[in-house]
User: Fold these one by one.
Assistant:
Number 1:
Amino acid sequence: MPASEGHPPISSVQSLCVIMSIQNPCLSCGACCGYFRVSFYWAEAESGGGTVPDDLTSKVNNHLCCMKGTESQPARCVALMGDIGSQTRCTIYEKRSSPCREFETHEVDGSVNEACNRARAHYGLPPLNPLLPGEQVA
Ligand code: SF4
Ligand code: SF4
């Protein structure tokens, strides 16, 4: 159909697809910070030149340390404030380690991170759904 008839060409229609932001479920969750051992290379701690405050870490072995509170079950990171499943906050957000930065609710293709749903299930929280085309987590 030619554009001159008053209808935009298909390529223009596709570019009109709106990105819909859904509310970030992490704001009322925090389950992963109270479920997994959060371990990382020791040099991510301040004493190794990194950012994570030393006094919030525990040694795992000669190569790894972890966030205090996550070395045993039941786990709960000492840097986590608030009530899991209600309202939580990471008190070292800007200084958090690489596993904390890399753990996402969804994969790049929009599928759910199953580890996220496992942590949520542990606290009786409903599973997250895959993102629909055009959706992104705010
Ligand atoms: S378990 Fe999932 S939804 Fe909950 S805080 Fe972690 S990444 Fe966010
Ligand atoms: S450092 Fe922050 S993001 Fe990482 S486990 Fe602890 S509370 Fe969660």
Note: The radius of gyration is 20 Å.
Number 2:
Amino acid sequence: MFSVPCPSCGFETTLSYERGSNGISIDRKGIRDYDFIKNTSKGHALNCFKCGFEIKDVSYYEKVEDIINQTRLNERICEECEIKEFNNNKLGKVQYKEINGKLICMDCFELKIKSEFPDPTTPDKKFILNLDKLQYELYEVRLPCKDCGRKRWVKANEQWKKQCLSCYIKTKENENDIVND
Ligand SMILES: [Zn+2]
Ligand SMILES: [Zn+2]
Ligand SMILES: [Zn+2]
């Protein structure tokens, strides 16, 4: 499979040929024939899948990959960084969001939101951006341990943990000692 860029619109039409069949044809009697001139010479023409522009001197191909071309034709492109939905270096499909009538990828979306709404994180409070709700949510807070006073990060929903881990373990050990006595 390979693709040919259109000199007119830039769209890349995807083409294919069966591996190994290049130049070799088998007729109805099963006789293999090598059709050198027809299949290996350049000079095949192709109409761009998107705009129909006639591209000359295309390498040998057997099939225009309609499904792939149709998908690419409809694929979305980020209006900021121009990343394409399918034809990119990412593992899966790129996700997009529309903002003020502009289609942008999630990476650009996040940058935009972060530039409009600065991260309220402080030395004692960490926030994370929730892209669905478009707001920062408290993630971790730095709280002093009630016993040793040492500050440590605690998840926002675990602020009931008043002791650091080592003080907590010490307390538990003492409790056990009392029970054992
Ligand atoms: Zn074209
Ligand atoms: Zn982008
Ligand atoms: Zn402590």
Note: The chain has a mean pLDDT of 85.
